[in-house]
């Protein structure tokens, strides 16, 4: 078995966001992942963007070393790659000797707090399909949705007819 840890990657310098350089981070993670796998059988998953414009990477650690595996120390290969193989682009963003911060996040920290754009578009499409129907059930559902939307309006959204 293996233990999976989710780590958010952030630049130590607040002037730069990880999401803006995700392609370089992905190349660096691939390189560091090869090293981690060959030494410890630790798998570094593909870095992914989050809803809050962050970058997270899942680390799959074998059970026998999970208790003593220091995530930050072993992810330094990502910083090393960015500093040595990206043409000096990241030198100005060093804070002391640190380029990246590694923050372990729990599943609840990672869970989006709002609907994604895909979910919102699906809701609009569902409502549009409902508007195309003219049966009694559809009209009742449309009226219920309109009541909910009316209750959810903010004061500045109200019109003179409300």
Explain how this protein is built.
With 162 residues, the chain is of the alpha+beta class. The protein folds into 2 domains: 2-110, Alpha-Beta Plaits, CATH 3.30.70; 117-153. It contains 7 helices and 5 strands. Strands 1, 2, 3, 4 and 5 form a 5-stranded antiparallel β-sheet that branches. Strand 3 and strand 4 form a beta hairpin. Helix 1 packs across helix 4 (76-85). The termini are far apart. The mean pLDDT is 87.
User: Order of helices and strands, N to C?
Assistant: EHEEEHHHEHHH
From the 3D structure, determine the CATH topology of the largest domain: Alpha-Beta Plaits
| Helix-residue proportion | 40-55%
- In what range is the share of β-strand residues? 15-25%
Oligomer: single chain
Give me the number of helical elements.
7
How many β-strand stretches?
5
Give the CATH architecture of the largest domain. Answer: 2-Layer Sandwich
Rounded average pLDDT: 87
Reading off the top of the CATH hierarchy, the class of the largest domain is best stated as Alpha Beta
Low-pLDDT residue spans: none
Terminal CA distance: 60 Å
């Amino acid at each position: 078995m293996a233990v999976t840890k989710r780590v958010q990657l952030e630049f130590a310098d607040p002037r730069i966001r990880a999401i803006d350089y995700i392609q370089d981070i992905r190349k660096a993670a691939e390189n560091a992942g090869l090293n981690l796998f060959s030494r410890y059988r630790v798998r570094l998953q593909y870095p992914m963007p989050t809803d809050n414009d962050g970058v997270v990477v899942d680390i799959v650690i074998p059970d026998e070393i999970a208790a003593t595996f220091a995530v930050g120390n072993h992810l330094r290969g990502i910083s090393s790659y960015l500093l040595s193989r990206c043409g000096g682009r990241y030198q100005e963003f060093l804070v002391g000797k640190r380029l990246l911060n590694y923050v372990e996040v729990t599943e609840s920290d990672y869970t989006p707090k709002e609907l994604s754009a895909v979910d919102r578009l699906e809701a609009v499409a569902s409502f549009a399909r409902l508007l195309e129907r003219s049966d009694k059930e559809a009209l009742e559902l449309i009226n219920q949705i309109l009541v909910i939307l009316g209750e959810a309006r903010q004061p500045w959204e109200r019109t003179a007819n409300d």
